[in-house]
Specification:
- The complex is a heterodimer of chains A (265) and B (275).
- With 265 residues, chain A is of the alpha/beta class.
- Chain A contains eight helices and ten strands.
- In chain A, 36% of the residues lie in helices and 23% in strands.
- The radius of gyration of chain A is 19 Å and the shape is globular.
- With 275 residues, chain B is mostly helical.
- Chain B folds into two domains: 2-41 and 51-64; 77-268, MetI-like (MetI-like fold), CATH 1.10.3720.10.
- The chains are: A alpha/beta (265), B mainly alpha (275).
- At the A-B interface, helix 2 of A face helix 7 and helix 8 of B.
């Protein structure tokens, strides 16, 4: 097997508060190949967002290490761009300016002003948001905000794209549209993606592998499921596909039979 | 079709007229009422304060001609107000710059907050005029002393509100900044100031109000040609009607300053509060 692109190596994470230490993640091991789309699924409170923050570098690991292209991840950076659950667009900037800020910061030295403008517009077109470039985040819908957040992340040309429950707060129709957009973009750009989700269908539809986490505290990786469905995938055709149905069952069984949600865990 | 346009224009005119009537007429009615009661109370023989009719008769020229200039101490109240505003702008401008920077420091650093916040909380309760003797001793001149009093009066709400605004910057914005690897200066300009702008402008608005309160008192003591000294001078020469006109000038100017800062704030912070 080739060397992993991103390696999460024996990572644990504990939080201390008032002399009490809680272990949130315990001995996480995960290798992700270049261009792979990995979904991490688990009940809420299992520490999957913490895992993403560790990969992003927003919180430091307690033990173990995270390697991206054999370099240790120590701090946040644009090579690990995140699409946040609550979009995190800067409300005082227009849609264009939000993406442009990232473009200027990441590509400021390499690209001319004209190229940066083109690159900003290119990424807005990629998520079909070029028409709203002069609007402010408050003036567009939740789904549109996530599209802009995605454009901002893509514009950084990250080595790994991190999606933190990006569609969790959206209605089912909007979510389906955005999932299709993500699939289309992943197919054309070949990004390496880690997506946090609690939606079983979303995980099976989008990912090459599904990482299932046990309940916290001290959550571990319970099982890893390969989704060997060919791409491009069509939502409607897949509904009856035996591989799809089987994968869906596997995940559901893991979540609701073996590691069902514990109240106030 | 033209009929539709005309009726639309007509309805715009009627709503504008109604809004005008709703906002302008009630205060005018109340003002007339107050003047009427005042006239009755102070119009009797032996009243200690001048009635509105007396004020108008003796000091009406101050109202009608704000910008006359008959020599060093005989100028219109408009000029005096402008002199006072100039002092306020120096002191308040300085306080804004220093206050926002200090507020950013206190809001951003836990150690700066632990060290400085208690000191600020004590100093901000010192009345403006209590600083004046120290300022006079330090600057040996009345004008910089008055400006210093404005500065020290208006800086506290600016510091405290800026710090509160910066402490309340959502973690999401900080995460965005650290993923983009913004340097401290970029973070200050691109994230901190716009995110805290609503708080900063609240502080500025309180600050300009306090500054205007303090300048009148400071000028009474330091002299010069400001509106504050005018009141003191009028008192010493028993020109009570002049004082009443000056009070109206001060009130209206303070109102305008407050609204001005509020207006700039709402323009600058346009769109920042929505999620």
């Amino acid at each position: 097997m080739q060397r992993p692109y991103l390696k999460v190596d024996h990572v644990s994470k504990s939080f201390s508060r008032g002399g009490k230490t809680t272990e949130v993640l315990s001995d996480i091991q995960l290798s992700i190949a270049r261009g792979e789309f990995v979904a991490i699924i688990g009940h809420s409170g299992c520490g999957k967002s913490t895992l993403l923050n560790l990969v992003a570098g927003l919180t430091p690991v307690t033990t173990g290490g995270i390697l991206l292209e054999e370099r240790e991840v120590a701090s946040p950076g644009p090579d690990r761009a995140i699409v946040f659950q609550n979009h995190s667009l800067l409300p005082w900037l227009t849609v264009y300016a939000n993406v442009r800020l990232a473009v200027d910061k990441v590509h400021g030295k390499k690209k001319s002003r004209r190229e940066r403008h083109r690159w900003t517009m290119h990424n807005l077109e990629l998520v079909q948001m070029a028409h709203a470039k002069d609007k402010r985040p408050a003036e567009i819908s939740g789904g549109m905000k996530q599209r802009v957040g995605l454009a901002r992340a893509l514009a950084m040309e990250p080595k790994v794209l991190l999606l933190d429950e990006p569609f969790g707060a959206l209605d089912a129709l909007t979510r389906a549209h955005l999932q299709d957009s993500v699939m289309r973009i992943h197919a054309s750009l070949g990004n390496t993606v880690i997506m946090i989700t609690h939606d079983v269908d979303e995980a099976v539809l989008l990912s090459d592998r599904i990482v299932m986490m046990t309940n916290g505290p001290a959550a571990r990786i319970g099982e890893v499921l390969d989704v060997s469905l060919p791409r491009p995938r069509e939502r409607l055709e897949l509904a009856a596909d035996p591989v799809y149905v089987h994968a869906r069952e596997e995940v559901l069984r893991f979540l609701y039979e073996r590691h069902h949600f514990v109240e106030a865990a | 079709m033209w009929r539709g346009t005309v009726s639309a224009a007509w309805s715009t005119i009627t709503t504008l007229t109604r809004r005008f009537l709703e906002t302008v007429v009630p205060p005018l009615v109340m003002l007339a009422l107050i003047l009427f009661v005042w006239q009755i109370l102070c119009g009797r023989p032996g009243a200690t304060l001048p009635a509105p009719s007396v004020v108008w008769a003796e000091a009406g020229d101050l109202v009608m001609q704000p910008f006359f200039d008959n020599g060093p101490q005989d100028i219109g109240l408009g000029w005096r107000v402008l002199v006072s505003i100039e002092r306020v702008l120096y002191g308040f401008g300085l306080a804004s710059i220093v206050g926002i920077l200090l507020g950013a420091l206190v809001g951003q650093s836990v150690y700066a907050m632990r060290g400085l916040d208690p000191i600020f909380q004590v100093l901000r309760t010192v009345p403006p005029l209590a600083w004046l003797p120290l300022a006079l001793a330090a600057f040996r001149d009345s004008n910089p002393s008055a400006i210093f009093v404005i500065f020290i009066t208006s800086i506290w709400p600016i510091i405290i509100n800026t710090a509160a605004g910066i402490r309340n910057i959502p973690q999401d914005y900080r995460n965005v900044a650290s993923v983009l690897r913004l340097n401290p200066l970029e973070f200050f300009v691109r994230i901190m100031v716009p995110a805290a702008a609503p708080y900063i402008f609240t502080g500025l608005r309180i600050g300009i109000g306090l500054a205007w309160l303090a300048i009148v008192a400071a000028e009474m003591l330091t002299g010069g040609v400001g509106i504050g000294f005018f009141i003191w001078d009028a008192w010493n020469s028993s020109r009570l009607p002049d004082i009443i006109v000056a009070l109206a000038y001060i009130g209206l100017t303070g109102f305008v300053l407050d609204r001005l800062v509020g207006m700039i704030g709402s323009i600058v912070t346009h769109g920042t509060t929505a999620s």
